[in-house]
Design a protein that fits this description.
heterodimer; A: about 280 residues; mainly alpha; MetI-like fold; two-stranded antiparallel sheet; 11 helices; 2 strands; about 75% helix; B: about 290 residues
Amino acid sequence: MKKRDIFQKLGFGVLGACMAANIFFLGTIIFFIAARGLGVINWEFLTAAPRDSMTAGGVAPAIVGTFYLTLGAILFALPLGVASAVYLTEYSPKGWIVNLLRISINNLAGVPSVVFGLFGLTVFVKYLGFGVSILSGSLTLGILALPVIISASQEALTAVPQSIREASLALGATQWETIRRVVLPAALPGILTGVILSVGRVAGETAPILFTAAAFYVKGYPHSPFSEVMALPYHIYALMTEGTHPEEQTRIAYGSSLLLLMLVLSVSMLAIYIRARQRKTYNA
Amino acid sequence: MNKKKERIIKYLFTMLAFASLAFLVGIVLVLFKEALPIFTKVSPKDFLLGQSWYPTAEPAEFGILPLILASLLVTLGALVICVPLGVGSALYLHELAGPRQRAVLKPVIEILASVPSIVYGFFGMAILAPMLQNSFNLPIGLCALTTSIILGVMATPTVASIAEDALSYVPRSFREASFAVGADRWQTLTKVIIPAAGSGISTAIILGMSRAIGETMTVLMVAGGSAVIPSSIFDPVRPMTAAIAAEMGEASVGSDHYNALFAIALILFLITFVFNIAAELISRRFRLKLGLSR
């Protein structure tokens, strides 16, 4: 074998090992958490409230809280995100506006999550007076989800063939009619992918709700948008850092982590699946 | 009438589209407004370079150098892991994986990226830290080393997917020209494709760094929390994000401590802002260089 062939073999081997490391990481995390979490999850865990000072019972209020927070965030971010994407792709504004908006969207996507938390605390909790509540938390999480929804929607809108738009305009439809009746329906599956991706992201975020929505223990279920809530990710954090029974709490934290992990991973797998099918239709 | 409606709708969309810009500007304004009062008490120089962070002591001391150094230490540690692994995976995906392997491996990377940071934090605290403590006989498991490992794993998929994007922009003709002059695949990869994609790959590294330095929950749970200038990678540390998240709950609104935490957030924001802008500029020049618009 020539020297350069050996180099090539070695080099490719190293690259293969790097790729394998990703699989190893994912496998390790899932394995260790599932190994001790599976035994914790049962019907009571999913449907009951915590009892005996967080050492027994379930996490149902936290599941419900995460559901409300995520729902609120999407309700806020979806219209804004789709509108931004429609503006950027359909109304093709001037170059500098596109650049300015693209830079702000990219930067918003890169803002550390704890900074979103501080923004939410100052603006929603304090200034607008929503207090520590589902509403404040949802709005904060919504801003964080906005860039994800915008870029997925933009990708979906650009993938709609130009000829469909032209056909609609040629039939005498106005631009808005074209967007509403032709372009948006065609882009819907792609937009949906963006929504699902951001559900995964939002449901797992903790830092933005630390000061805007979450509480370790709330009696009963939330009854208004102004209630403080328990949330699954925050619950894990609180179980590991507060309270007086570390051993029992860690056990419940294993269950909660596994639950959150399964929730988020299945959501993102769904998004990946829909997107793969979507790309296939366009390429065919 | 119809024309008027069309115009109104267009204005509506324009307004909504500026929401992202408005939020970004809002974040900057809030950070400045809440942070500036601390600089009437402590000079910016003492704030940035002061070596003691005792925000609740009497008299309080607001020197955030230990926090900045902690952030830098764990971020550098993370880079040692995520740069080779992320770039290596991207090269593997681009160069060696066939369509069927890619169909499995790309989702693996995306799924790894979607694991919530609280789960990484929990994994680090409950599993990795005790494991490292036992196997390396460390005094404390929750330290900069454990944090770096977890942050490195978290940033790997970020680096991998952006670097893979960059590689896909390299035109086919580069590779064909290299094969035509007798280079093998490895030589083509190292001497042609990697240099051509170099600035795109550096964008990936910058954004990976940005991800690691802004990460909060993991660092809060795993870093150990001691606000002292670290002397080794085995020391417990308190990076900037952890300080904000851990102390904001106990700082009363409008107090010096409260303002100081916002000032830390402002500095953190500026760091990630510079990273993101740098990545943006580099990637634009990279695309122009390869003859791609946008």
